[in-house]
Structure formats: structure tokens, C-alpha cells
């Protein structure tokens, strides 16, 4: 029962936090007015993709937490979550596309480091991050392209 409670807390933190940040920093007129590359997905794609990814992130974090709360994977998990939650305010609220690109590159590095540190000890946690790594890699390319197209 205690393990289930911890999982629920991880889900609430990650899914709830991600959705709250998404609502508070929702793309508005500023984002709509930016030039975007042809590979920019339609807006309706982002919320369901991130919701699924947040569930996977929470489960991977919970697994690492259950194994060792002070481990390197757990520290990397917290780092990636902080960077993940930082990106939207930097990009959408502060309109700092270049700085957001640096944040998302650091986020991708933290994700890949988490995968690498979990690979031998907890492969399911590492694999739970695979779709996340792919999406953030795509998002980094998108962020970089938007930055290049809108430089003044």
C-alpha cells in the first residue's frame, strides 16, 4: 500500500505539475505569430503527447525512488523534471527562445544520462524514458528551428 501511495504522489507531482505549467504558460498570440518550420505539429498534438509522457516520467521516477532515493538516477530524474518544468515558462512566458533552446538541450542531456545510469540496474525505467528522449529530441529541433526562423 505504501508503494502505491508513493506512485500516486509521483503521478500527481509530474502529471499535475506538467498540466499546471502547461495551463499557466499556454501558447498565445505571441507564439501564433512566430514563424515555424514545416515539421511543426498541430497544436492539438502537444497536450495528449505530454500527458502520456508525464505518466511514463512519473513511473520511471517512482521506480528509481523505490530502489534508492539518493541514487544517481534519482538525482538525474529530479534534474530533468526541474528542466522540464522550466522550459515552458522560459519559452512561452519569457519569450526567450534561445535560452529555452539551451534549457531543452540540457533537459535532453539529463534524460539521456538518466537512461544510461538506469540501463543495467533498472532497464524498465530506462525504457520508460525512451519515448520521452525521442520527443524531447524532436522538441529541441523544433525549438532550435523556431529560434533560427525568428531571430532579429
From TrEMBL:
Q: What is its main location?
A: membrane
Q: How does it sit in the membrane?
A: Multi-pass membrane protein
Subcellular locations according to the entry: Membrane
The superkingdom of the source organism is Bacteria
Family named by the database record: Belongs to the TspO/BZRP family.
Keyword list (alphabetical) reads: Membrane, Transmembrane, Transmembrane helix
> Transmembrane residues, as ranges?
44-65, 77-94, 100-119, 126-147
Listed GO CC annotations? membrane
Q: Name one GO biological process term.
A: tetrapyrrole metabolic process
Metal-binding listed as a keyword: no
Q: What is this protein called?
A: Tryptophan-rich sensory protein
Amino acid at each position: 500500500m505504501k508503494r502505491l501511495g508513493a506512485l500516486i504522489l509521483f503521478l500527481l507531482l509530474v502529471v499535475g505539475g506538467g498540466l499546471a505549467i502547461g495551463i499557466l504558460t499556454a501558447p498565445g498570440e505571441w507564439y501564433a505569430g512566430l514563424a515555424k518550420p514545416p515539421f511543426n505539429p498541430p497544436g492539438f498534438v502537444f497536450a495528449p503527447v505530454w500527458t502520456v509522457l508525464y505518466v511514463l516520467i512519473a513511473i520511471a521516477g517512482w521506480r528509481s525512488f523505490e530502489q534508492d532515493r539518493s541514487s544517481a538516477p534519482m538525482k538525474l530524474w529530479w534534474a530533468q523534471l526541474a528542466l522540464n518544468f522550466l522550459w515552458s515558462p522560459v519559452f512561452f512566458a519569457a519569450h526567450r527562445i534561445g535560452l529555452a533552446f539551451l534549457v531543452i538541450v540540457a533537459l535532453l542531456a539529463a534524460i539521456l544520462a538518466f537512461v544510461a545510469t538506469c540501463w543495467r540496474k533498472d532497464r524498465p525505467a530506462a525504457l520508460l524514458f525512451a519515448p520521452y528522449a525521442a520527443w524531447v529530441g524532436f522538441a529541441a529541433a523544433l525549438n532550435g528551428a523556431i529560434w533560427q526562423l525568428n531571430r532579429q
